[in-house]
Amino acid sequence: MSEVEGGLDEPTELQPDQGALALADPETDAWVQADWEAETARVLRKSRRLTDEDPDASVWDKLTRSTLDGIAVAPIGRPQDAEHLTAGVLRPSRTGGWDVRAHLGARSVPAKDANETLLVDLEGGVTSLWLRVDASTDLDAVLKGVYLDLAPVVLEAPREPGAGVAAAQAFLAHLEATTPAPGTNLGVDALAPAADLVAVARLALDAGVLGIVVDATTVHDRGASDAQDLAYALAVGVRALRVLTAAEADGGAGLDLATAAGLLEFRIAVTDEQFPSIAKLRAARRLWARVLELSGGAGGVEQRQHAVTSRPMTSRFDPYVNMLRTTVAAFAAGVGGADSVTVLPFDAPLGRPEVLGRRVARNISHLLIDEAHLGKVGDIAGGAYAVERLTDDLAVAAWSVFTETDGEDDLDAAFAPLVDATVAAREKQVATRRRPLTGLSEFPNLAEELPERVRDADWHAEWDAVRPYGASFEALRDTPADRPAFLATVGTVATHTARATFATNLLAAGGVAVEPAGATDDAEALAAAYEAAVGTHGPLPVVVLAGADATYGAWGAEAAAALRAAGARHVVIAGKQTDYADDACAMGVDALAFLGRTRAALGQALGQESQA
Prior knowledge:
46% of the residues lie in helices and 11% in strands. By secondary structure, the chain is of the alpha/beta class. Helix 5 (163-175) runs parallel beside helix 6 (194-207), helix 8 packs parallel to helix 10 (274-294) and helix 8 (226-245) packs across helix 13. This is Methylmalonyl-CoA mutase.
């Protein structure tokens, strides 16, 4: 196999839709755009995001956001967005609905239980199985009663030397004379030792099945961006092709490029950011076609895609929100053209998923296929200006990362600093709640009772390497404060509700409950409410003033002084910082830093009181 050189801006016959999309009538388009700008600007002025002096065209700057790869995502698409694209997009080959693939870790579950779980999934409409196995897995017992000529099985074995070969041999022995269903994959990891790749490739060719999985979810689980996910998939896939086509492979009989490429399946994560996820799958097909072309050509070999809903986007807290996240991600996978889709159960972050989680997971795909009819159109997003632009930008960004890392001996180490930088950028957005996490950083419920799930060795093997997007907030929730903060609501309910609600949700995100004062009309009443709360809970060293600016101006300083005289040690104001408060919280605050300061003040003050 030749070295991968070249760029995405060079012509290729593998991309049939190359070229700009047809533009609408310029005059009509100009009128529609100006009309949209005017109406949108009117709404933004009403919400004070634009001033009367700002031109209507400012809405583009206000509403355009940037991904972690620095790609601009406009609020709507325009014909000019699709002009001068470097190339078109390969349409997905899938027709109709996608393969609904259930996942099961079968390493630490009794074989009988694993078998019952798989049979329930299959009876519930699952069409293929993804099994995490190792040398201890009894495949005869696990797959008892599974019609392997109808339901493809994709194995996942450890990356250690010999593990993938042993799993493949055990599965083929179980097959005996059964003709495996199309899509069956012996599943050796593309980063496994070269000898294992070659051995499993030969077994796969003899059995007429796929043999190798390029798993980009591993780097995604550590926090990679979309472009980094794609670049990692390309680099790992190219490594596998080089091993399989090398002259020394199998004693000097390396595979031809098309045969080697035909053994691969790509596993790619999709998130609840639907448009980037749609573009991600579309860009992946184009990128892989470009790799094959630059490697000597493998006409007719299409990238087989297995989309998996993102692990790090899910949360252990308020886990039922995960149903919404995975539904959006599955929608994006279907629209993006994935061949197979695995929806991970909503309770997977808590431990081994139970019956309800698995049933909801498979039914999400059924609803999208059978009720929403997403499989009726081959490329739903094709021709959408915004998606075409985003696909192109993402492909270019991924290609740049790929060319920087291609050929590295240790791809995980090569990607580590890139991923670390992405994690830091995402963490800043999460901390300031510019990237809100419902049920965690927004609208948390401190009184919720989490469902209990078993965390066995197989679960740990899958989830210990995952870095959740809300990990910092989850850590705070894991160790909640042992007493509340006093919510010093100043003024009437109508005047203090907005800021009281904001402060309550912010503190709850850090595991801090509040004891509200209720409506108060002066500092004396507020101090009396505080003393009553202390009588119930004991010392309450942290208080949070919450009210309207006018009320603060009238008696905010007096309120703070009265609370300090009553025993408060740390005064926070909801709103702008003042000289009579120790801290402040408002929209845009670094929530994690604020919560850290507040919890530290709470702990320090309690410690001082106990010493006294």
